[in-house]
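Tokens in:
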């Protein structure tokens, strides 16, 4: 399986939501008659199916799941049950008992399959189901210790897959709590969460899973106060910010490619300025502007990064 920060986007419109917007979408589905546990079941089943399809070689050595006490942990219990049913050796760690009704139901569903005890630390695939979209702020006490376990597994060579988002990453702002562990793969349920796009280097390969959430009128342009479409300007700006922030933190300008832009006759530097800014905002490491002598000063003043 290939690691790396890239998006796998299905052909339909991409939706990007904040934590509140994602919760509102779930609420609309529940109000329309879909039981909340069914949403959890669909999410966990979709994640398990993806793992079975994409990570078969790793799963042959078993899988370690780390489940929190909330609904993200409930998703992890569903994943555990579905993988065990498929013949995978499943080990699950939960520092705290499930506290939500749906998570408790998921734990009960998974319990008959959890016969292999706690993770050994030798599993090549580890699933992060500690914290979901409802969490924000620092990692404290038990959660910090649980994330430390994820870090040890990752440092030991395991592939880390996060359910919906890496634990400790704010779904709305992208703020990363101290102790949060970067994922190799993040499986987003139903929509991409805005925070994952703002911290591309922390989520690894970002995969959108269809969890069967079909809302009346849920088409591009609908509910734009609650969710974004890829065509929306805000989302495009967010994606641009993602590239800039990730590159600034994790790579040198010399390895991000060079762009040469020629143009700008005397008094006509506007096109070169716009093209240079676009190249920089989409991640180019070095931009060379080749312009008329009379256009050098305006290009340098408006795009000082250009060479």
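Residues out:
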């Amino acid at each position: 399986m290939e690691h790396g920060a890239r998006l796998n986007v299905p052909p339909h419109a991409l939706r990007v939501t904040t934590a509140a917007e994602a919760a509102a979408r779930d609420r609309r589905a529940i109000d329309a008659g879909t039981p909340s546990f069914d949403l959890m079941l669909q999410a966990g089943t979709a994640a398990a199916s993806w793992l079975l399809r994409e990570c078969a070689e790793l799963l042959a050595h078993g899988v370690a799941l780390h489940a929190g006490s909330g609904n993200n942990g409930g998703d992890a219990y569903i994943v555990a049950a579905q993988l065990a049913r498929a013949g995978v050796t499943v080990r699950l760690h939960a520092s705290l008992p499930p506290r939500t009704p749906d998570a408790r139901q998921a734990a009960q569903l998974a319990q008959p399959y959890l016969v292999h005890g706690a993770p050994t630390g030798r599993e090549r695939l580890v699933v992060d189901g500690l914290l979901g979209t409802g969490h924000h702020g620092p990692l404290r006490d038990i959660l910090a210790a649980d994330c430390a376990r994820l870090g040890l597994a990752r440092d030991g060579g395991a592939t880390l897959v996060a359910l919906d988002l890496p634990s400790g990453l704010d779904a709305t702002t992208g703020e990363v709590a101290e102790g949060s562990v970067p994922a190799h793969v993040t499986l987003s349920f139903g929509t991409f969460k805005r925070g994952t796009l703002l911290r591309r280097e922390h989520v690894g390969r970002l995969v959108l899973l269809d969890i069967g959430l079909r809302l009346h009128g849920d088409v591009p342009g609908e509910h734009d106060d609650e969710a974004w479409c890829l065509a929306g300007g805000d989302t495009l700006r967010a994606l641009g910010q993602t590239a800039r922030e990730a590159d600034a933190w994790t790579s040198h300008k010399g390895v991000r490619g060079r762009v040469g832009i020629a143009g700008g006759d005397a008094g006509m530097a506007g096109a070169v300025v716009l093209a240079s800014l676009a190249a920089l905002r989409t991640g180019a490491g070095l931009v060379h502007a080749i312009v008329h002598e009379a256009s050098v000063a305006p290009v340098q003043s408006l795009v000082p990064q250009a060479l």
